Automatic annotation (TrEMBL):
MF terms (GO), sorted A to Z: UDP-glucose 4-epimerase activity
Gene3D superfamilies with a match to the protein in the record: NAD(P)-binding Rossmann-like Domain, UDP-galactose 4-epimerase, domain 1
Superkingdom, natural source: Bacteria
Signal sequence residues: none
NCBIfam families: galE
Lineage: Bacteria, Bacillati, Bacillota, Clostridia, Halanaerobiales
Protein name, per record: UDP-glucose 4-epimerase
Obligatory cofactor(s): NAD(+)
Complex formation: Homodimer.
Catalytic activity, reaction form: UDP-alpha-D-glucose = UDP-alpha-D-galactose
A Pfam family matched in the record: Epimerase
Organism: Halanaerobium saccharolyticum subsp. saccharolyticum DSM 6643
Length: 331
């Protein structure tokens, strides 16, 4: 298939791209490189451009004869979304609509969308199922939920078929060491702990140890980025074969506390470092664990990296190697 991957120079997108290339697909990556890295695009055609550019989107659909879209491009910092809501509605919602319009104009009918566990807000029950109430506590989560609603309208109106994948905490790196997570600024727990193990940071702060969990720190469901990537391929193939639109959670189904993550990093790296308890971070739910039963049953998706140790080991290999060179432009 000729597949357009938006945000393919980013962390998750580059792993999706690599998995698509391995399956022999023709891939066109669109990324504005605001957060992504050119080096992360390991094959296919790369177009440096922005989702705001409607003409470009139409041109790509036509000239590259796109048959399916995987849409990962977005802004995804929860804290920033609370300070700059407009940026999030514009990029994650309005720019996404540009993409849908270009698809419809060019009769492209299948899209896999990167949604997030942040659409749920504080969950009613654990593990979280897809029919849990969706009351996002951040603009980020809301912008993603709005786009999910738009997808439903486009399906009702034009017969556009979508799979919306609500990821939990993406983690780990390409086991071949070619690509990995390189966010700047980094806000995610595992890379931050690894940077501490490497001495890039003085210490790791645990954001709150008074949550109603076994050890008082927050529990999350970490899913390996290659397991995520595999789900995109299954979802796109299912749509191409005529499957109806659907929403799926994607997690490993296991919860680990912040303290457990830190202890596992110490074991995997063989390094000790300072840990300090600090204030809770605003908006952090105590426990987020996915039920991924639906995608397992419907698309036969099976996570391969179910142990935290394995997930962290792949990330450690990547961080130890130095990752991508620091970007030199000064935007
Ligand atoms: N990382 C996680 O744990 C996680 C969890 C849930 C959902 N998600 C979602 O998954 C997707 C990918 O996340 P990631 O961690 O790889 O983020 P990322 O920032 O590494 O990748 C996003 C990419 O999109 C590009 N981009 C952003 N806006 C663009 C635009 N208007 N035009 C063109 N390119 C644009 C960026 O340059 C970047 O390369 C996002 O949609 C995010 O919301 C991520
Ligand atoms: O230095 C740190 C960084 C994080 N944490 C804690 O570690 C846990 C995980 O935090 P991350 O920032 O790694 O991940 P989040 O669970 O906050 O968020 C991730 O998952 C969400 C959905 O669950 C959204 O999709 C979001 O985009 C994605 O980053 C949280 O309890 C957080 O408070 C620390 O204690 N110290």
């Amino acid at each position: 298939m000729n597949i357009l991957v938006t945000g393919g120079a980013g962390y998750i997108g580059s792993h999706v791209l690599k998995a698509l290339l391995k399956e022999g697909h023709q891939v066109i990556t669109l990324d504005n490189l605001q957060k992504g890295y050119k080096e992360a695009v390991t094959g296919g055609k790369f177009i440096e451009g922005d989702l705001a550019d409607k003409k470009l989107l139409n041109k790509i659909m036509k000239e590259d004869e796109i048959e399916g879209v995987i849409h990962l491009a977005a802004d995804s910092l929860v804290g920033e979304s609370m300070e700059k809501p407009g940026k999030y509605y514009m990029n994650n919602f309005a720019n996404g609509i540009n993409l849908l319009e270009a698809m419809i104009n060019n009769d492209v009918k299948n899209i896999v969308f990167s949604s997030t566990a942040a659409v749920y807000g504080e969950p009613d029950e654990i593990p979280i199922k897809e029919n849990n109430k969706t009351e996002p506590t951040s603009t980020y989560g809301e912008s993603k939920l709005f786009f999910e609603k738009a997808l439903k309208r486009y399906d009702d109106t034009y017969g556009l078929k979508y799979a919306s994948l609500r990821y939990f905490n993406a983690a780990g790196a390409d086991p071949e060491g070619e690509i990995g997570e390189a966010h700047d600024p980094e806000t995610h727990l595992i890379p931050i702990v690894l940077q501490t193990a490497l001495g890039i940071r003085d210490k790791i702060y645990i954001f709150g140890d008074d949550y109603p969990t076994n050890d008082g720190s927050c529990i999350r469901d970490y899913i390996h980025v290659n397991d995520l990537a595999a789900a995109h391929l299954l979802a796109l193939e299912a749509l191409a074969e005529g499957k109806e639109s659907s929403i799926y959670n994607l997690g490993s189904g296991e919860g680990y506390s912040v303290k457990e993550v830190i202890d596992t990093v110490k074991e995997v790296t063989g390094r000790d470092f300072e840990v300090e308890i600090s204030e809770r971070r605003a908006g952090d739910p105590a426990v987020l664990i996915a039920s991924s039963d639906k995608i397992q049953k419907e698309l036969d998706w099976q996570p391969k990296y179910t142990e935290l140790e394995k997930i962290i080991s792949t990330a450690w290999q990547w961080h130890k190697s130095g990752g991508f060179e620091r970007r030199t432009n000064d935007e």
